[in-house]
Amino acid sequence: MIKNRSALLGAAFLMATSAIGPGFLTQTATFTQTLFASFGFVILLSILLDIGAQLNIWRIVAVSEKKAQDIANAVLPGAGYFLAVLIVMGGLAFNIGNVGGAGLGLNILTGLPAESGAIISGAIAVGIFLFKEAGKIMDRFAQVMGFVMIALTIYVALNAQPPIAEAAVHTFMPEKLDVIAIVTLVGGTVGGYITFAGAHRLLDAGITGKDALKEVSKSSVSAILIASIMRVVLFLAVLGVVSQGVKLDPANPAATPFSHVAGNLGLIIFGIVIWAASITSVIGAAYTSVSFLTTFSPFIAKHRNCWIIVFIVISTAVLATIGKPAQVLVFVGTLNGLILPISLGLILLAAHRSKIVGDYKHPVWMTAAGALVVILMAVLSVMTLSKYIGNLMA
Questions:
Q1: Number of other residues whose CB lies within 10 A of the CB of residue 247
Q2: What is the pTM of this model?
Q3: 241 in helix, strand or coil?
Q4: Is the pLDDT of residue 111 over 80?
Q5: How far, in Å, are 18, 127, 144, 215, 362 from residue 138 at the CA level?
Q6: First to last CA, the chain
Q7: What is the rounded distance in angstroms from the CA atom of residue 261 to the CA atom of residue 267?
Q8: How many CB atoms are closer than 10 A to CB 376?
Q9: Interior/surface letters 99-113, b for 16+ CB within 10 angstroms, e for the rest
Q10: Pick from 48, 70, 85: which is nearest to 350 by CA?
């Protein structure tokens, strides 16, 4: 039971810290400046949609005792390979950004060039997977870094003196609404590889089957709530600053509340937060992306840790030599938005096929909630992709 509890908590933190990366910090700060207190409503709605997506995916992965790509192949032959390609493409592209965020964090903390910081951070991530018990080390590392990020951001939020009453009111009665912000937050929390990080971790830990569904469901919701706590705390920190008329630094909007509230100490705190957010995302992206490659070859499955190390090295090498290829990141980011409706749609189909889930009966309300997320994300992702392609051809 204690072993299971540790794995369940580790999976929750792995998923949450995979979501909390440099993009997560930047998006939260930017949308807060745009929507002010009304951003609270966007966060609330995105949490509900996140839970709707994650509950479905984690439960079906657990009860089928199969990885997501294998479930997809069982639903539609070849769909799992297509999904794996999308996940790995998105994971690699965003991992370049994650390594860059880690480099920026060490640059703030030590003054080292960002490229050197990225290489050091990549080496630390690689070090975790050199150990035989890499899974347990990864779980513990994610938990410690998660607590550090949240605790430090709470300190800044409290000192930023945000208008909490106003935020509470507009969380339920928004003055402004931005649909794209909702899609961005949902995609940034459970899109692409992120939602599968914890589900595949539980599968590797042997927490599967109908008997484990209650604990799996709790862990899946806990993961969303952990990421959401960080989102809410950062929202309040930024809100407290922008409510005083302070403009966020366009180059690094998430750093502004930290430096404004606590000066040089605040910058050091931000350096720790963005490094912790980035390094855990590097680990989560590499682990999850490679878990999708294991279907392609028994050799990859047997030497999984080696492939995870290669994945991290490639991400680090691209960042250190080329930098962040902006056009690639934007395009793959748009594709990443399409992954959730595709993957969740396949999972929902699998949920009602006895050859995949046996005699398990998936709750109707979960199917309905998942279908709502699929429709919403599909429509808005296609709109975004069409707009991007139109801009390229203009």
A1: 10
A2: 0.90
A3: helix
A4: yes
A5: 12, 10, 10, 20, 31
A6: 59
A7: 10
A8: 18
A9: bbbbbbbbbbbeeee
A10: 70
